[in-house]
Specification:
With 237 residues, this protein is mainly beta. It has two domains: 15-107, Immunoglobulin-like, CATH 2.60.40.1120; 113-235, Immunoglobulin-like (Sandwich), CATH 2.60.40. Helices cover 3% and strands 46% of the residues. It contains one helix and 19 strands. Strands 1, 2, 5, 8 and 9 form a five-stranded mixed beta sheet that branches. Strands 12, 13, 14, 16 and 19 form a five-stranded antiparallel beta sheet that branches. The longest helix is centred in the last third of the chain and has 6 residues, at 183-188.
Length: 237
């Protein structure tokens, strides 16, 4: 009677390298060569950390396959978080057992300070809405633009962490650019005609490092310049 050898399933690896790369930026429109020495921390694995090399590359070697939360920090930059990064065995990958995180941008904190904000009218470019007068420092120029962001709420304590709506990044090349929101835009944000809305403006960076924080239920904007002026209010036309 002959004996046959039982088929056995291949033993798959349980860990591998997690690799990523970071490009740094100033708070304007210029990429920089400041990629070395960025700290990357896995916050849900006993604060396991590494740092980037001169090309902005980082590696976690022999990391168990799992889902990880990464925190990226460096002096002068707002903390960036990449939440829920999947590190799993992929038999189709060019390098088996290695997860490559697509290259991502990392920006410096804003150097733009909002020094004044007021409501200037109830129309924008001929449409009903609200327009603003503002000043920022340093004075923007075509070659050194100012980037800002508006936060809006139906309560007077509106801030970068307490808001109902937030604008896209707005950029100015001078202090006479028209800025504001049409009524249709405000309605799209969840406000209604006749409602009092409060708004604050903060200096922002071109690369914002923004991320959504699930346990808080809103987006975080780490590169804002929190030195600003009090909120102003208006009534939606």
């Amino acid at each position: 009677m002959s004996c046959s050898k039982k088929d056995t399933a291949p033993v798959l690896p349980t860990s591998g390298n997690l690799i990523g790369s970071i490009q740094t930026w100033d708070d304007k429109l210029t990429s920089t060569t400041d990629m070395a020495g960025i700290t990357v921390t896995i916050t849900n694995l006993a604060n396991t950390s590494t740092t980037t090399d001169a090309q902005g590359k980082f590696t976690f070697a022999n990391l168990p396959f799992d889902e990880y939360d990464l925190e990226i920090t460096k002096s002068g930059y707002g903390t960036l978080k990449l939440l829920g990064v999947t590190h799993a065995y992929d038999p189709t990958a060019s390098t088996l057992g290695t997860t490559l995180i697509p290259g991502f941008n990392f920006g410096k904190k804003s150097t733009t300070t909002v020094t004044a904000l007021s409501v200037s009218g109830n129309n924008v470019l001929g449409e009903p809405g609200v327009s603003f007068n503002y000043t920022v420092s340093p004075v923007p120029t075509p070659s050194s633009r100012a980037f800002v962001r508006y936060f809006l709420s139906n309560t007077a304590d509106v801030s970068s962490t307490k808001y109902k709506a937030v604008s896209n990044v707005v950029n100015f090349s001078n202090l006479s650019a028209i800025t504001g929101f049409t009524t249709n835009q405000l309605v799209g944000m969840g406000f209604s005609s006749g409602q009092t809305v409060y708004v604050r403006m903060y200096g922002e960076s071109f690369i914002t490092n923004e991320y959504f924080q699930p346990n808080l239920g809103y987006k975080i904007f780490p590169n804002l310049n929190l030195t600003t002026v009090p909120a102003v209010s208006f009534v939606v036309p």
